[in-house]
Structure to design on (216 residues):
DNA sequence: ATTGTATATCGCAAATGAACGATCTATTTG
DNA sequence: CAAATAGATCGTTCATTTGCGATATACAAT
């Protein structure tokens, strides 16, 4: 009846929010980030002690957080020290803040 | 080698953040919410005019936003007026804000 | 060179998500 | 009651995500 797919495109802002949100969309990743927030940094091993999941699964979640830019890994053989990526963290913070800031008008 | 699945459980906070984040994890849903933010409310029809996607697809995204609690629909036959759910919006806002607020310690 | 340690990557299976066209539902209008 | 309208739901297809065990990699220590 309508709208034959004109091919959807998004703004950089829309994609950025969605991308960060996706990284935050699994509770175990929230836990990992909360942990890093407190500790500043930690090794994967610490997380596998704290979180009852296979090491490979945790490694995969770390990869997703890294791909989203929210964390970074410092190679410190034979281990890897993960830290929050300050820059991305600030960006995500302000991008979400701006998104929610603009209060929707009250229902009329 | 380790950690035989003790069965993972999450806090309500972790699940709440992940749940809201999941709702925000697709750019078209960001667009819909931004639109509602500006307009306060609108009918599905308005969205199908604005967004080049099948009506059924938009309806599905609306359902996800509704399931997450971020929007609500007022039945106003034969149409449905969607609005941001103020209460959930505020909750999401403060939950994300609190999550990002606690600055991670600087890398040592 | 062998061994050990920490972590990543692979390959799989099951579950979930995205998009669509088609159909159903509920209500208003004729 | 019939037709029109707005929107939800269904069923399908295809892609992505999740979680796991097994294996690979990279370096340090012996």
């Amino acid at each position: 009846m309508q709208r034959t797919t004109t091919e959807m495109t998004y703004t950089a802002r829309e994609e950025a929010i969605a991308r960060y949100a996706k990284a935050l969309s699994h509770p175990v990743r929230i836990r990992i980030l909360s942990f890093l927030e407190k500790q500043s940094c930690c090794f994967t091993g610490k997380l596998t002690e704290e979180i009852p999941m296979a090491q490979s699964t945790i490694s995969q979640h770390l990869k997703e957080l890294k791909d989203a830019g929210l964390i970074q890994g410092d190679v410190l053989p034979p281990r890897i020290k993960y830290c929050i990526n300050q820059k991305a963290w600030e960006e995500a913070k302000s991008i979400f803040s701006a998104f929610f800031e603009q209060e929707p008008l009250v229902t009329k």
Summary: The helical segments of chain B are 12-23, 27-39, 44-50, 55-67, 86-101.
